[in-house]
Design a protein that fits this description.
heterodimer; A: mainly alpha; 12 helices; 75% helix; elongated; disordered C terminus; B: mainly alpha; 78% helix
Chain lengths: 265, 257
Amino acid sequence: MKSGSLGLLALVIAGLAVCSYCANTIYDNKVTIVPSEQTMPTMFYAGMDKFLSNVSWMTLIQWEAEHTGRSDDAQMQAISQKFNALTNLDPRFVDAYIDGALSLRAQRADLAKQLLDKAEAAGAGDDWRVPFYSGMLTLQQDGDLHKAIGELNRARGLPNAPPYVASEWMRARARELAGDPIAVMDAWSGFISTLRPDQTIQRRMAIGEITDTGQQALDDCDLQLKNETDSKAREQLLDKRTELQKRMKDLSAAPTTNPSSPNAA
Amino acid sequence: MDNVLAIAGSTYAQHAKSKALYLLWILLIVLITSANRYDVLSIGRSKVLLVDLGLALISLVGAGSVLVLGFEVPRELRQKVAENLLSKPVGRDQYLTGKFLGTVLFAVCNILFVAVGFAIVVLFTKDAEPQELIIPTLGVIGMVLMLAAMGALFGSFMGEVPAVIATFLVFWFGHSTQVVAKMADQTGSVARAVLRTIYGILPNLDLLNTRAASSQTLFAGAAPITAAYTIESLGYALLYTLVIFLAALLVFRQRDL
C-alpha cells in the first residue's frame, strides 16, 4: 500500500470515529424531539412506516367491517394485535388508538386500556381523546375514581376538548363525593361558576344534577326523620334538611342561562 | 477537476436522457394526487395519506436513482469501458468521483422534480403548506448522499448485482439501525459503549428520516423537527458520505483492473 493510501486509510478510520460520535449525539437529540423512537418497537420498512400505517388502517377498516358481529375472545385478541401492529407503524395515530379501544371496550376493557396506555407512552396523550377515553375506561374497568378523575381532569384541559369532557370529569368527582350530598351540590355549584356564559346546556345539566342530588338527599332525610327517635340525631337531620333546602333555594334564584344571550328571556 | 466534471456531466447526461423516466415521475405525481380521492376509504385521512405517500415516494425515487451507481461502475469495468477512460490521463480517483457526482446530481434532480410536483399538488389541495415539506425533502437528499457513497464503495469491489443488492439492503436496514442504539441503552456500560460505537459506524439513515415526524407535526400535533436538528443531521450525512467515499477511493485504488 502506498503512503498516500495509508494516509487515506488513517483519514477513513478517524472519520468513522467522528461519525460515530456525531451519530450518537444526533440520535440522542432526535429522541428528545421524537420520544417514541426510543419507546416504540423498531420497524424494518425502510422508513416508510408512516405511509404503511395508512395502508394498514384502510385494510383494518375493511377487516373490521367483514368481521362485524363476532365478539368472542379470539376476535378481541385479533383486534388487539392488529391495532398494536398498526400503532407500531405510527405511534401517534390517535384515531387508531380510539377506534381500537372502542372496539375492545365492551368485551375486553383490559386490552382497550392497554392500547390507550400505549398511546400515552407514545406521546399521543396530548390529544384530549386519549386521556378522556382512558378515564372513562378506568371508571368502567376497575372503578378507580381517583385515577379516572385525574385522567378526565387532564383531558378537559387539553386543546379542542369538547364541553362534555368537563361534564364527565365533574360527574366522576360527584361519584367520589357520593356519601356527602351537600359536598356534591357544592362541587356542582363550583363547576357552574367555571362555565362560560354560552355553555347553557352544561349549566342546565349541572343544575339538574344539583336538583336531583338535593331532592334525593331531602327524601332520605325525611325517611330517616320518620324512623329516628334519638333527639340529637333528629336535630342533626333537621339541620341537614335546612341546609339542603337553603342550597336548593339559592339555586332556583340563580340564572340558568346567559343573561346577555338572546335566548335568556 | 475538468476530468471529474466531464465524467460527472456525461454520467448525468447518460441517465437523464431517458424520456420514459420523466413520464414515470409524472405518473408518480399523479399517483400522489390520487391519494386525495381516498377520503371515504381512509375515514377522513386522505390528507395524511397524500402527504405520507408523497414523502415515501420521494424517498423511493432518491434511493432508486442512486442504485444505478452500484450497478454502473462494475458494469463499466466488466465491459472494459472504464479501462478506456483510465488509459487516458484520468486517475481512478477522478473516475470514481466523477461517477459519484454525476449520479448524485441525477438523484437530486429526480428528487427535486417529484418534490416540486408534490408541492404543487399540496398547494392546490391545501392539505399542508408546501414549505413544511422542505425539511423531510432535505432529509431525503442527505439519505441519497449517504446511499450514493455506499453504492460507490460496493461498486468499487463487488460485481453489478451484489453491489446493487448491498446498496438496497443499506437503504432498507439503514432506516432501522436505531435498534442497535436501543439495545445499547438496555445493557451495561462496556456493552453499551461497544454497541453505541457500532451504531455510530453504521449508515444511520433514520437520523435523516424526518418524514414521519413532519407528518405527525402537521396532523397529530407532534413537536416539530427543528432547523438545528436538520442542519446537524445533514452535516452528519455529508461527513459520513465523505468518509465512505474516501473508503471507496481507497478500495478502488487497490483493485486489479
